[in-house]
Design brief:
It is found in: Cell membrane. By secondary structure, the chain is mainly alpha-helical. It has 13 helices and seven strands. The strands form three sheets. A three-stranded mixed sheet has the order 5-4-7. It has a two-stranded antiparallel sheet with strand order 1-2.
Length: 348
């Protein structure tokens, strides 16, 4: 049966309904109808004012649970990382390069989850998953900035551990205040450049073939999948930029730990080796968690055809990892635990 596609947008998802034409319509009328502008064609960029975000579930009974879950994770993330920052700034014993970088990592984690989770909670509460085009670009840019900043800070912290273990006598000379501040500034500007490059790639998209983003936030890879044009060039540029900004930090971390392990293996006593490696155990755990969940997001996107699985993997990477970082550092680091106890005793 012949059908006419009518531009009927579902307010929740933006899907178009397929409506069969009634049998009494004449062929002349259908011919005239076909000459009218087709609103089922991909929407021009000038007409796209908003996107629809896909949630974790469409079940109405699960929405209160999801709201409480995201709110709990957000509060734990903010309070946990804020306690780490307060403990480091209030304890003079922790005014060292390693804890200086850790406080900046905690600040970046707070900012990372704050770009997404409040919007998710509001969407669940209002039952509206709409985000404007400009807000989507802003959220995407800010998310990439802080995600890249996390990666850069983990690389700088790996270098800090490399200097501390492999060159202990020159540690304070190499990791001086100027070096620490310069490392933070370089990480900041590299992350800013990365976010703007991704933003520029998305801005080149002239039209979109749909308006539903298969994630709970404005994921740049999912936004590009909505492009009408051949996504090959955009994907090549996107993956090239991602490879450069992902390969360099990972290479720096691998090189640092290669030198660290080689140096530790030269220590004659097992106690000395354990003591030396314990100073970077927390950092190594966070690195594995950060890049492990990031790899799971990539593999889920490449292998699985289920958008829900991809969304769940994104939650692990973007929300759960920043929430776990304070626990990893506080449970495995005696200095942080002592500083937190002193901070809490002062507050009490």
């Amino acid at each position: 049966m012949n059908t006419l596609l009518v531009n009927h947008l579902n307010p929740k998802y933006g899907h178009r309904a397929v409506c069969p034409h009634p049998p009494f319509l004449s062929s002349n009328f259908l011919l005239l109808f076909k000459r009218w502008p087709s609103y089922t064609e991909p929407q021009n960029l000038t007409s796209v004012s908003e996107f629809f975000l896909m949630g974790l579930s469409d079940d109405p009974e699960l929405q209160p649970f999801l709201c409480v879950l995201f709110l709990s994770m957000y509060l734990v993330t903010v309070l946990g990382n804020l306690l780490i920052i307060l403990a480091i700034t209030s304890d003079p014993h922790l005014h060292t390069p390693m804890y200086f970088f850790l406080s900046n990592l905690s600040l970046a984690d707070i900012s990372l989850v704050s770009t997404m989770v409040p919007k998710v909670i509001v969407n669940i509460q209002t039952h509206i998953r709409v985000i404007s085009y400009s807000s989507c670009l802003t959220q995407m840019s800010v998310f990439i900035f802080f995600a890249c900043l996390d990666s850069m800070l983990l690389t700088v912290m790996a270098y800090d551990r490399f200097v501390a273990i492999c060159h202990p006598l020159h540690y304070m000379v190499i990791m001086n205040q100027h070096t620490c501040c310069s490392s933070i500034l370089v990480s900041f500007f590299v992350s800013l450049l990365d976010s703007q490059l991704h933003n520029l790639i998305v801005l080149q998209v002239a039209c979109f073939k749909g308006m539903e983003i298969s994630n709970f936030f404005c994921d740049p890879s999912q936004v590009l999948k909505l492009a009408c044009s051949d996504p090959l060039i955009n994907n090549i540029v996107m993956y090239f930029v991602g490879t450069i900004y992902g390969f360099l930090p990972i290479s720096g971390i691998f090189f640092s730990y290669y030198k660290i392990i080689s140096s530790i293996l030269k220590v004659p006593s097992s106690g000395g080796r354990y003591k030396a490696f314990s100073t970077c155990g927390s950092h190594l755990t966070v690195v594995c968690l950060f890049y492990g969940t990031g790899l799971s997001v990539y593999l889920t996107s490449a292998i699985s055809q289920s958008p829900r699985k991809y969304t769940a993997a994104s939650v692990m990477y973007a929300v759960v990892t920043p929430m776990l970082n304070p626990f990893i550092y506080s449970l495995r680091n005696k200095d942080i635990k002592s500083a937190l106890c002193r901070l809490l005793s002062k507050a009490g």
